[in-house]
Amino acid sequence: MNTGDIGGMPGVLPQPVVAPLTRAAIFQIVTVNPGMENRAAVRSLCGDLGGLLRAVGFRDQDGQLSCVIGFGSDAWDPLFGRPRPAELHLFREISGRPHRAVSTPGDILFHIRAKRMDLCFELATQIMARLGNAVSPVDEVHGFRYFDNRDLVGFVDGTENPREQAAIEATIIGGEDSAFAGGSYVIVQKYLHDLHRWNALSTEAQERIIGRTKLSDIELDDAAKPTSAHNALTTIVEDGKQLEILRNNMPFGEVAKNEFGTYFIGYARSPHRIEQMLMNMFVGRPPGNYDRLLDYSRAVTGTLFFVPSMTFLESLTADEPGGRNQTAKESLE
């Protein structure tokens, strides 16, 4: 990934946030257990993550194995001390009428991608073996590519994702927070779909809700597209400029449990972009003009993480960070 001179800091290497879409992914969220030894185990893994990734990925060098690790607001100070990323905070619950974007716990996110699920599974296994009792699991989702990048609701997902340099500019922090240049923010949400009700709709009704044609994936003309369409509400324009994010959403499910869902994962250089999109979806633009897809798709998790640069991770040791606020230090003890 050619990121150029990030924030005027040559040599800063981001994590593989803009890695290409793959056929398989594992999304794993954990919390850090109390105690200095548990924080040390997490910091040690951070420093060794690149080597662990290379060891597993070497088994299939064409497998496109990658891993992004992100950290929640409550975990940052106890793990790394000060300073902290400028916009890192807990995911803020959004209460609209009639739907709600919930906020759920999470200290660490692992976003593992590869062409093959066995590579994802092996890396996740090795990571958890290294961490052992230092963490407790919160959620784990195994995602898969569904036909031609379609969601389980039948529409192509991610058509308008920025690419190449535009993706880097949308996701990677530069001079606006120079201490954390090369980093990124990520918000994740797990959505469960009521496919029985959704599939009872006509194709035309579904297209008006999404804002695109179902078969050909063509955006509807503005004259035919409702202002409540999903792609209308998730387009953010400020000062005449569209603010982009990078989505790496994946379908998941368990057929016997009648569980069908989408794991939303959005990367951006500022969480404000994603938060505004979610505000438009759940509250509406204007209020009340909410995203009708939410009538058929329910958010059951919601967490915000900061993704530090690979340069930051590789500089870490198991030692406690110096100069840290004592209250923060004691918060996980």
Walk me through what this model shows.
The chain has helices spanning 36-57, 73-80, 117-131, 164-171, 195-199, 203-210, 230-233, 271-282, 310-314, 326-330; strands at 24-32, 66-71, 94-95, 100-101, 108-114, 135-144, 184-193, 237-238, 241-242, 246-247, 250-254, 259-268, 297-299, 303-307. The protein is α+β, with helices and mostly antiparallel strands. Strands 7, 10, 11, 12, 13 and 14 form a six-stranded antiparallel sheet that branches. Strands 2-5-1-6 form a four-stranded antiparallel sheet. Strand 11 and strand 12 form a beta hairpin.
SSE-based structural type: alpha+beta
The average pLDDT value, as a whole number, equals 93
Radius of gyration: 20 Å
Number of E-type strands: 14
- Number of H- or I-type helical stretches: 10
Low-confidence stretches: 323-333
Element-by-element helix/strand order: EHEHEEEHEHEHHHEEEEEHEEHH
Task: Give the N-terminus to C-terminus distance in angstroms.
Answer: 39 Å
Cα shape: globular
Helical content class: 25-40%
Describe the largest sheet.
6 strands, antiparallel
How much β-strand is present in the residues? 15-25%
